[in-house]
Write a structure and sequence with these properties.
The chain is mainly alpha-helical. It folds into two domains: 3-209, Cation efflux protein transmembrane domain (Alpha-lytic protease prodomain-like, Up-down Bundle); 216-290, Cation efflux protein, cytoplasmic domain (Alpha-Beta Plaits). The chain contains eight helices and three strands. It has a three-stranded mixed β-sheet with strand order 1-2-3. Helix 1 (3-35) runs antiparallel to helix 4 (117-145).
């Protein structure tokens, strides 16, 4: 999978997210005017926040896609981690606000009765269908590209499904039984779901910003590829770090010191192609050492 193709996938997810958020804001504004429902008002506020987050996420994806330059020799992919960390914090705060609002609503017995509940439920059903389509595409893109911004955005929209379902239940319960408490209970569940997901994504983004190594399974896979490469007599100093959806790989391979430079280069190039074929997100730098070379005593590396 080429970097250009990954960029197009990520941008498509970002543009679709912005479009869906804008459509849902317009639809829920109409539903709120028709019903006067607090449950609908809560989902409208959430969709408005989604729109702002999606616009920020799209900007981060576009910036991260910029090629390396004189000031950023390794590219701009860390912008993905910064955006994902910001989104996770925002989602965490949103979860807290939703939880507090739900508790206050449970304690408030003066909530106004909604009206025209059927219109509101129709808009909520439309919102759920559109959101499910968006999340399905975002999850597909995140699996293919590993983009943390797209993954964080999909989590937020996935969390929106529960308040939307809660709004439908609340409108139905209001119309049939005059009950409002169900919506608040569902909102508390949505807040817990959002908080857990936000912490998971935030930790991943923080680890990447702190140059944490790649997943152990990936490191083991790279070792296996190196050890199975013809002409490679050994390897050492395998180091990795994650930045956004890219993984930077540095390693030293040990080769026959008597062979030509062309032959040594061919082995290194073959190994690099094998690693990037198995891990398209990898940016690989290989240093070649002759077998048995002794490290210089002034070399500070361990």
């Amino acid at each position: 999978m080429s970097t250009q193709h990954d960029t197009r996938l990520n941008l498509s997810a970002g543009l679709l997210s912005v479009t869906v958020a804008a459509v849902l804001v317009a639809a829920k504004l109409w539903a709120l005017a028709e019903t006067g429902s607090l449950a609908v008002a809560a989902t409208l506020a959430d969709s408005a926040l989604d729109l702002m987050m999606s616009l920020g996420g799209l900007a981060a994806i576009a910036y991260a896609a910029k090629p390396a330059d004189d000031d950023h020799n390794f590219g701009h992919t860390s912008a993905e981690d910064l955006a994902a960390l910001g989104q996770s914090l925002f989602i965490l705060v949103s979860a807290g606000v939703i939880a507090i609002a739900a508790v206050l609503r449970l304690l408030d017995d003066t909530t106004a009765m909604p009206q025209a509940e059927g219109f509101g439920m129709a808009v909520m059903v439309f919102s759920i269908i559109v959101t499910l389509g968006l999340v399905t595409w975002q999850r597909h893109v995140a699996r293919r590209t590993g983009n943390k911004v797209v993954l964080a955005d999909s989590l937020h929209y996935m969390g929106d499904l529960i308040p939307n379902i809660g709004a439908i239940v609340a409108l139905w319960a209001s119309a049939r039984f005059g009950l409002f408490e169900i919506d608040s209970v569902v909102a508390l569940g949505a807040a817990a779901f959002l908080a857990v997901g936000a912490l998971r994504i935030g930790k991943g983004a923080w680890d990447a910003l702190m140059d944490r190594q790649a997943d152990p399974a990936m490191i083991a896979g790279i070792r296996q590829i190196v050890e199975g490469c013809d002409g490679v007599r050994g390897h050492h100093d395998l180091k990795t770090r994650v930045a956004g959806s890219r993984v930077f790989v540095n390693l030293h391979i040990e080769l026959d010191g008597a062979q030509s430079l062309d032959a040594a280069h061919a082995i290194g190039a073959r190994l690099r192609r094998a690693i990037t074929a198995a891990y398209p997100s990898a940016d690989v730098l290989i240093h070649k050492d002759p077998v048995g070379v002794e490290r210089h005593p002034d070399d500070p590396r361990r």
